Amino acid sequence: MPSAFWSLVRSLGRGRLTRVDDSGPVQLVQMQLSQNETRDATPRLAEYGFESNPPAGSDAIAVFLAGNRTNGVVIACGNQQYRMRGLASGEVAISDNKGQSVYLSASGIVVNGGGLPMTITNTPKITGDTPLMHFTGNVTADGDITDNVKTNSHSMATSRGIYDSHNHPVKNVQSGGSTVTTDPPNQPEIKAE
């Protein structure tokens, strides 16, 4: 066979990752290409904004410049064990080996925390444009909660204060077993300005 053919054959390699070093500006991997060939400190490229640290045993494809097996770069990785299965045509997902995923399904976005906590940090404001938000558990907040903001300018804590301190005048008090209906409270709810 011509040397150009062997150079082309040696330009591609398929194997499994055995170690990942994610400490520097470029991720470096160790890749076992065959029983007799292991490449160490091989740079791994990924799409901008999509970082991952594939577990040992992940499949990998490497390209070796001019067939030089000491000058390679890993261009793709996958993991058969942790790959999400059953996606329909056009669907997209990101997932990990802990069961966490963001699934852009044909019927809507599904976020699965895999039983782990979710944290949103360093954002001054979150806006949701939805007619209904439903939680199956409790909701807690360190700050105030204000509802019906188009007609209400105060928080639920202020409303509770008004409710807890309000009273009703009782006119024409009678003795004995008489029943009296109260008037509206003296401290009506504060209206939005």
**Which ranges are low-confidence, i.e. pLDDT below 50, for 5 or more consecutive residues?**
none
Architecture (CATH level 2) name of the domain at 3-78: Beta Barrel
Contiguous helical run count: 2
Biggest sheet, in brief?
A: 5 strands, antiparallel
Gyration radius from CA atoms, angstroms: 32 Å
**Molecular shape:** rod-shaped
How would you describe the overall organization of this protein?
It is a single chain. This protein starts with a helix and ends in a 28-residue tail after the last helix. 9% of the residues lie in helices and 27% in strands. Strand 6 (92-95) and strand 7 (101-105) form a beta hairpin. The chain has a domain at 3-78: Nucleic acid-binding proteins (OB fold (Dihydrolipoamide Acetyltransferase, E2P), Beta Barrel). The strands form 2 sheets. Strands 3-2-1-4-5 form a 5-stranded antiparallel beta sheet, with no helix packed on it. Strands 6-7-8 form a 3-stranded antiparallel beta sheet, with no helix packed on it. It contains 2 helices and 8 strands, in the order H-E-E-E-E-E-E-E-E-H. By secondary structure, it is mainly β.
